[in-house]
Design goal:
By secondary structure, the chain is mainly α. The chain has 2 domains: 83 residues, Orthogonal Bundle (Rna Polymerase Sigma Factor, Chain: A); 83 residues, Orthogonal Bundle (Arc Repressor Mutant, subunit A), CATH 1.10.10. The longest helix is centred in the last third of the chain and has 24 residues.
Amino acid sequence: MRAIQANDPRAFGELYDRHSARAWHVARAVCHDASRAEDAVQEAFPAVWRSNGSYRGELGPVLGWLMTIVRNRAIDAARRESAGHRPQMGDREPFLDAVADGSTSDEVIARSEAAALRDRLAQLPDAQAQVITLAYFGELSHSEIAARLSLPPGTVKGRMRLGMDKLRAQLAVEARA
């Protein structure tokens, strides 16, 4: 690591050769996707080169420091991907179909409530908002959501529960205000 900190590209190449396969496995475990894992590793190693001065040997081995950087890049890649695939409700609000035959004031109220709900969902972590959006607006079951997102059904149920708990807490705070 001292050679890398002295900007020796051969030492950096050796670090890459020794640890890139392990880095890919760490990134793959986080991203659950081979392509995103490759991207994360390709982002991590230049970051290691640029930030080599931040490594402190007394705090732990190089491998731990390196894998922490890889893991963080993989988390970033997974979050970017999740944000890109977050279902959008768009202009059409499926739950407004029920008021389509009602009065104009009913529709105005429903649209106002829909906007408030979109704002609340935007405050949730992407994973929780995604399963709630798919369940309530996409009208999918837990098993359909699990299949669509390649997740275990228990994970979908857990995310749904956590997200609903947070929505309830938001509503409780708003009701007291």
